[in-house]
């Protein structure tokens, strides 16, 4: 009988302990978090050297042949950008145009933005290929989403410049022309 009392007492003690843990009190708190990101559209041109591209029209080595256009300085130009699209924007483009001067008569200027390379992330744009540039803005990089290229030489899109003779009869010797190329990161 004595053993039966110990077993009943032990069982009662276990039931009390289990019931206390089942009815334990629980306390919770919460914190509201809000995040906002402003729309971002930043563009920069990075370059080696002076930042001025120089071309020279040279006579051909063969009589009767077209003159040769040569870039006289070897520099690198890179477009860097950061883009965070707004709610209603699908994508952005970079357009280029001639401002602050004019192209020499009889010559055409072309820009090719190479495909993206660098340490950036997100949705970077694609080259529009070889694009003739004039006074009106023309896209050279398209399909930019929310992303960034990385900063400096070697990041973004390297730019290549070419000049072609379109109308030889309009070219005048000993003429010098200076002009500026304006780049704009724009919503489409």
Descriptive tags:
about 190 residues, mainly beta, 7-stranded antiparallel β-sheet, 4-stranded antiparallel β-sheet, elongated
What's the short story on this structure?
With 188 residues, the protein is mostly beta strands.
Can you walk me through this structure?
It is a single chain. This protein has one domain (40-187). It is mainly beta and 188 residues long. Helices cover 11% and strands 39% of the residues. The model has no long low-confidence stretch (mean pLDDT 87). It has one helix at 2-22, and strands at residues 40-47, 55-58, 68-71, 77-84, 92-99, 107-113, 121-122, 126-127, 130-133, 138-144, 147-148, 157-165, 180-187. Strands 1, 4, 6, 7, 9, 11 and 12 form a 7-stranded antiparallel sheet that branches.
Topology:
Elements: H1 2-22, E1 40-47, E2 55-58, E3 68-71, E4 77-84, E5 92-99, E6 107-113, E7 121-122, E8 126-127, E9 130-133, E10 138-144, E11 147-148, E12 157-165, E13 180-187
Antiparallel strand pairs: 1-4, 2-3, 4-11, 4-12, 5-10, 5-13, 6-9, 6-12, 7-11, 8-10
Can you count the beta strands? 13
Question: Level of helix content?
Answer: 10-25%
Stretches where pLDDT falls below 50 for ≥5 residues?
A: none
**Average predicted local confidence, pLDDT:** 87
């Amino acid at each position: 009988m004595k053993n039966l009392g110990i077993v009943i007492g032990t069982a009662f003690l276990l039931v009390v302990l289990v019931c206390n843990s089942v009815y334990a009190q629980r306390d919770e708190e919460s914190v509201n978090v809000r995040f906002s990101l402003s729309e971002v559209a930043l563009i920069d041109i990075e370059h080696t050297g002076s930042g001025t591209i120089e071309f020279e029209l040279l006579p051909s080595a063969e009589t009767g042949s077209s003159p040769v256009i040569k870039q006289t300085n070897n520099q690198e130009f890179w477009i860097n950008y950061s883009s965070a699209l707004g709610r209603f924007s699908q994508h952005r483009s970079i357009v280029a145009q001639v401002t602050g001067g004019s192209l020499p008569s009889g010559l055409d200027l072309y820009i090719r933005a190479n495909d993206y390379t660098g340490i950036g992330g997100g949705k970077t744009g694609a080259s529009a290929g070889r694009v003739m540039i004039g006074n009106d803005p023309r896209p050279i990089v398209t399909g930019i989403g929310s992303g960034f290229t990385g900063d400096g030489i070697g990041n973004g899109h390297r730019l290549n410049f070419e000049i072609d003779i379109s109308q030889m009869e309009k070219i005048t010797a000993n003429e010098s022309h200076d002009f500026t190329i304006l780049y704009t990161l724009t919503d489409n």
